[in-house]
Amino acid sequence: MVTLVIGIGVIAGISSLGEGDDSPSPTPSAATPTPTQPACTPTFDVAQTADPGDLPNALAGVTALSSAEAWAVGASGDPLAPVAVLIERWDGAAWTAEQGPSPGSETNELRAVDAAEPNDVWAVGRTASGFGDRPLVLRFDGTEWLEIVLPEEVTGVLTGVAAISPDDVWVVGYEGDPVASLERALVLHWDGQVWEVDDPGRAVGSGRSALLGIEAVAPDDVWAVGYLHSRPLIVHFDGEAWSRSETTVDGETNAIAPTTPTDVWAVGSPIQRFDGATWTSAAEIRADGELFGIAVVSPSDLWAVGRRPVQGGGTRSLVMRFDGLGWTQVEGASVPGSDALLGVDALSDGTVLAVGYKDVEAGRRTLAILGSTCFPES
After folding, report:
1. DSSP 8-class letter at 48
2. Which of 101, 229, 261, 335 sees the fewest Cβ atoms within 10 Å?
3. End-to-end alpha-carbon separation of the chain, Å?
4. DSSP 106-170
């Protein structure tokens, strides 16, 4: 079962990031050499975040432009129907809240963010004013965040965005009611002048479907993931049309990360890998865990984040890293409360930023981590 609204409700229980004795063992790739002792141990630290107001707050998506410039988005209010968007900016030391429009009278929420360039940042989610969900798109122009008007006929929820350039932006999500199993995958494209609903046609097929994440390598190399019925859905855009990338691996697919045109990773549970011809299961997620985001430092250095349940109730954030040989769990600083990480981004300089939430006595609060990766010895 795919969870469309991540982090529903305030989860009770006490847990900590990186604790526990059920860490997954390294999962070597079939064609990799015998692992050797790493030169260092990857870790992460908790970063200072902002929690404006008295309402519950959570972050769902993040995009990094440099080690001292990043954006994170989410929402404030009841996780089922948050009332205001939440936007935070990273300056290399801490996250601070920024102003952004919340146009709906009932619901406003951001789920994903991506940057074409420092003065062109896009965030997507949903808004509602009593007539059902409508897609919400905000754009930062270097000075302020503005709402971008979509065609009136477009309805639904946006869950992912890939900003290739200011005049080439893809957004994905779904339209229709998932409670009634009537949702259908939604794809929109911005060409710098107008929005177009791009029907993926046979790439999606028929039946209940949604696209939950999207990532672009180039204008003619765009990947998106989600589900069709109860199976993983992976689609690819080659510059002309969308096609389905068939997988026989069962499970969840929440996010995707291409490192090259013939090396693509999809995460959820399990982790899948594409070699240019076939998708195979690359690593299992122990203890009923699930990953919601994946980011690339290099083809041999990937980070993925999510959550896993803990004994007695609640969840614990899950951080995993691929070192070119296999996936292992990354340990880091502890935080009180039940926690989860929902989005991650990384840069080639080793910057790794992930965001989510923690549930503590005072309620739901934002959570962010800063990863410290390991580079191969020269």
Report:
1. B
2. 229
3. 45
4. SEEEEEEEEEEETTEEEEEEEEESSS--EEEEEEE-SS-EEEPPPPTT--SEEEEEEEEETTEEE
| Two tokens, residue 39 | 């030169």
Which residues are 253's β-sheet partners?
268
> Which candidate, 68, 126, 31, 49, places its Cα nearest to that of 365?
49
> Is residue 321 within 8 Å of residue 328, measured between CB atoms?
yes
Tokens of 364: 């739901």
Residue type, 274: F
- In sequence order, the β-bridge partners of residue 49 are none
pTM above 0.85, yes or no: yes
Inter-residue contact 255 to 213 (CB < 8 Å): yes
The tokens describing 331, both together, are: 């340990």
Q: Strands 331-332 and 43-46: what pairing?
A: parallel
Residues of the chain with pLDDT under 70: 1-39, 377-378
Which residue carries 């069709």 as its tokens? 228
Distance CA 364, CA 82 (A): 12
Strand partners, 86: 74
